[in-house]
Amino acid sequence: MMTRRHLMSVFLLFCGTTFVFIHGKQYYTAAVYEHSSILNPDTHAIIDRELALKLMNKNLDIYEKQITLSAEKGVQIIVFPEDGIHGFNYTRESIYPFLETVPDPDKIKWNPCQDPHAFIRAEVLTRLSCMARKGRMYVVANMPTREDCDDSDPNCPRDGRYQFNTNVVFNDNGDLVARYRKQNLFFEYAFNTPSKAEHAIFDTPFAGKFGMFICYDLLFYEPAVSLIEKYNVTQILFPTAWMSAFPFLVGIQFQRAFASAFGINFLAANLHHPSLNMTSSGIYTPKESFYHYDMIGDAGKLIVARIPVVPTDHVQSEAHFVPTSQQVLEKCNSTLVCSAKKSLGLDSVCEDAAADVLTENSMIPPTFNSIIFHDNFTLSPLTTPVGEQLVCSNSLCCHVSFCGNFSHSELYVLGAFDGLHAGGAFYTQVCALLKCADTNYDSCGAKVTNASSTIDFKLWGNFSTQHIYPEILGSGLTLYLPDSMGWENKSYYMYRRSMSLGLTTAALYGRWYEKD
């Protein structure tokens, strides 16, 4: 008789569904595909349906190959990126031949593969449905859609139709099971915004409820955060055409932070066009990151991972450990050799004890301001190899306790920003520990991808919002998780030690949604 002690994995087949248990936990196999899409060379030109289908079928041929490969790996759900089938930067008129009608699956049951003529112009939907059916997996794709209207609708556009940026989901039989239309458009003049934010949720036999949204939605309460908080969805699908922005909104960086903040599984598929800063896809659980970031190659990338149905908090082992500043600093002992920054004209220093640094306040580092990703940050340089620092912006005060093995040629700063991003897009509160591009103050906030200085730190701030996204990037755009994070004495903190690579960015990126 087999016991749990001897049984590491159990596979159960029930009604055609495979359930995988490892050490008593249920898992499923997911895939995301970063797609190097074939683009329309002139997105403003008006073309006919035949030419539009010719372009879309080239991209769908690639999708079909990826689904075949995924089926061989036992994938149960695959996510493709935003704009992956048709491209982007269309006008309202030029995108017209690419549009198809997608009925509300809560009202109309439809399998396009089995009934391709139920709606006119359904060639793309039919191909996707047949791919899902043949591959025996759920398929999530993004496409442009239309919904006709007339004079009885006072908001009906002049051309008699709404146009939407839309996700569609087909189950493993090819049935259309979900539809989501993008709420937060990012300079997408071809599309309309739905009259109210949609919360698209569908059930699967292998992992329960899934929810989804698209790209720029990620930065807003509706529908991204409300989908998780109001409907308790822990599996999120995220087609995107994300252009990475340093130092806080690199695609993989914020995808990882979002999954960490909510303790969810997050499946993100991006386009792959490095010339447009488009790369960053991944599958994230609270404990693990399976991701792809490539600014050199031109090829797409299939990512496959087996992940737990029930996400588990990655800081579980240290859930009750909140390090004090003294504990962070005590790691810097007499054997640690550190250097201050040459740009400040300081000699190399090596402290005999961390406590000495805490009591020596003869030199308070200066503060200065710098524009970082369109926002006016208040910054303070780290001038000693070990210590504590404070910097404030409006009502937000940010603190760091740090102990570092610093390179002579690298400058780090503690930064704070509390205000409307880019003067009005949305409200942020940010505490950040950043490596500058060089040793000059005016380089702080520029793109940095490599570092050699390793730093143990505790970063915290008195945030006014409950929605804070913890980010840690190491050299080579390597993702790290905090050792612990959470609320302590009305401040939100994260703590990290023993990084194997140099630190480029550590940030607590707060979104104060109510002040948008």
Taking all residues together, what is the mean pLDDT?
90
Global outline = globular
Tell me the helix content. 10-25%
Describe the biggest sheet? 9 strands, mixed
Task: Spell out the key features of this protein.
single chain, 516 residues, mainly beta, 9-stranded mixed sheet, 7-stranded antiparallel sheet, disordered N terminus
Q: What can be said about this structure in brief?
A:
This protein is mainly β and 516 residues long. 14% of the residues lie in helices and 35% in strands.
Chain-wise SSE layout:
Layout: E1 9-14, E2 17-22, E3 25-34, H1 49-72, E4 77-79, E5 100-101, H2 123-135, E6 138-148, E7 161-170, E8 176-181, E9 200-204, E10 208-212, H3 221-231, E11 235-240, H4 251-262, E12 265-270, E13 281-284, E14 289-292, E15 301-308, H5 325-329, H6 354-359, E16 368-372, E17 375-381, E18 386-393, E19 396-405, E20 412-421, E21 426-435, E22 454-461, E23 468-474, E24 478-479, E25 484-488, E26 491-496, E27 503-511
Parallel strand pairs: 3-4, 4-6, 5-6, 10-11, 11-12
Antiparallel strand pairs: 1-2, 2-3, 3-15, 6-7, 7-8, 9-10, 12-13, 13-14, 16-17, 17-20, 18-19, 19-22, 20-21, 21-27, 22-26, 23-24, 23-27, 25-26
Helix pairs in contact: 1-2
